[in-house]
Specification:
Length: 72
């Protein structure tokens, strides 16, 4: 989990940075089902936005620095 929290989450459809993982959801079998990502909103400074729930099936690739997801 701590390794995943270090990675930026990028939407492959538009190239935007969504944020970083703040939590995960795990089913009864111990399988990760969702990533909870704290959104970053650009203003004069970075400020915390809302949260985005990303289903594990939306993850396209986990790299060394980023996690690429496909969000509509």
């Amino acid at each position: 989990m701590s390794d995943l929290q270090q990675k930026d989450i990028i939407n492959t459809l538009n190239g935007t940075k969504i944020g970083k993982i703040i939590d995960i959801e795990i089913n009864d079998s111990g399988v990760i089902t969702n990533l909870i990502v704290g959104e970053i909103k650009m203003m004069k400074r970075f400020s915390s936005g809302g949260e985005t729930k990303i289903n594990f099936s939306q993850i396209k690739r986990i790299g060394t620095d980023v996690i690429l997801v496909e969000l509509n």
